[in-house]
Amino acid sequence: MQDIYSGAYVTIIALSGSSANDGLPRVGKNKNMFPQLSCRINGKRLVGLMPTLSQQIWRAPWGGRAWTLQEGLLSPRCIYISDHQLYFECNGIQACESLNDSNSWAHHLRLPSNMRAQGGWLASKVGDGCLRVPIDNPSHRMERYGSKLTLYSYRSMSHATYGLNAFSGILQFLATMYIKGFFFGLPIEDFQWGLLWRSQYPPTRRLGFPTWSWAGWEGGLWPAYSFDFTKPHEYPLHIRIWRAAECGDLASVFMSQHREIYKRDPVAKAALREPEGFDFDFSKYPNAEKDGYLFIEAIMLRFSPDYSRPLKYLPQSGQFATFVFALGRVRCHLRIMSVDSELDEHGGFEKQDFILLARDHNDGLIFHYLLLVSFDGNVARRRTVLELIVPVSRLSILQECEPAKRRVVLI
């Protein structure tokens, strides 16, 4: 799909059609059109504006189909034919028949923290949201990947098994920046961040994919970013991830070696110990290759999250709700990174298991990105994503979370 659409001179999109049999407005027998309204008042002619392309896309069936996203993002030029007017879009501009001079629905997707900072004049004109924008480069690959994932997650498909196929053309393009490719839709080079995707509202399970992949869930999603998305590996942790290979053995997916940066850090001490738990025995998991099992060796934390004390100036539920969380006598924060039915709003007394996948440092605080998992025997399933925020001067308190290097099979 990437080769087909990117190789086309122009792609014609039937924006208003509900099926392949509807035809194109103003072409052949299909005369259905909404006229542009106009009137004269006191000798002056007033003309109504037609809907913008963004408005048309979000209300049209085309804008809700998962398969069609790659048409709009991979094609060098698009002509959108709607029952209001025609729209033209290329790498630099968007134009239409009416007087409206709107911005592109895809060009202006960018992180608020990165407003025009990297691309200068060109970025201000075409934005960072479009796959074909000429300022794409490997240092921006996390942002490029994340914006496309969010757009795709809001679209639907008739068969759950198409969860990755309909995104494959976009992944083919992104492979120019992610040279090692993808595994179940997650980029190999930034795999630990890829595992930290979060939902914008409670998602529903999509069977046929592992729980750890966004492809296994239906609903609006956000990707995870480091504070500086051009340096996602600045604070590495001990993480080793393997997958099942055809030869009946394990193949490496992602490897990161912990580097001691902070003093009195219990996580650094845990990284020096031998891993706890069982050795990976591939023969015990006959469906591991087909079902995308991950064999992980990483630092795990174990504690009882407490959501009973929300910060007063932040919402008490929903995405990015932050709660005061005490470890010993140290005031820390616990932030919900996903709107997820897995979370008990009032917390509980039972300790839970978290895989520590990433760390970041900002304004004297250490952000610990945690994947909450639940165990069923020797295998674990993804539940949700949290942040544990600890003052850098009080990292020793993490000993309360029982950090240990453990082996986990994530399905």
Structure description:
The chain has 411 residues and is α+β, with helices and mostly antiparallel strands. It has two domains: 2-135, no CATH class; 239-410, no CATH class. It is built from ten helices and 21 strands. The protein has helices spanning 2-7, 53-59, 61-64, 69-74, 120-126, 141-153, 168-174, 191-194, 266-271, 288-291; strands spanning 11-14, 38-41, 44-47, 78-81, 86-89, 94-96, 182-183, 186-187, 198-199, 204-205, 217-218, 221-222, 239-244, 250-256, 294-303, 322-327, 330-336, 352-362, 365-376, 379-391, 404-410. Strands 15-18-19-20-21 form a five-stranded mixed beta barrel. The chain has a four-stranded mixed β-sheet with strand order 1-4-5-6, with no helix packed on it. β18 and β19 form a beta hairpin. Mean pLDDT is 85; it is low at 109-132.
Key phrases:
alpha+beta; four-stranded mixed sheet; 411 residues; single chain
What does the secondary structure layout of this molecule look like, with pairings?
Elements (H helix, E strand, L loop, with lengths): L1 H6 L3 E4 L23 E4 L2 E4 L5 H7 L1 H4 L4 H6 L3 E4 L4 E4 L4 E3 L23 H7 L14 H13 L14 H7 L7 E2 L2 E2 L3 H4 L3 E2 L4 E2 L11 E2 L2 E2 L16 E6 L5 E7 L9 H6 L16 H4 L2 E10 L18 E6 L2 E7 L15 E11 L2 E12 L2 E13 L12 E7 L1
Parallel strand pairs: 1-4, 20-21
Antiparallel strand pairs: 2-3, 4-5, 5-6, 7-8, 9-12, 10-11, 13-14, 13-15, 15-18, 15-21, 16-17, 17-20, 18-19, 19-20
Helices, by number, come to: 10
The largest β sheet comes out as: 5 strands, mixed, barrel
From the helix content, strand content and strand pairing, which structural class follows? Answer: alpha+beta
Overall shape: it is: elongated
Low-confidence stretches: 109-132
Question: Percent range for helical residues?
Answer: 10-25%
The strand order across the widest sheet is 15-18-19-20-21
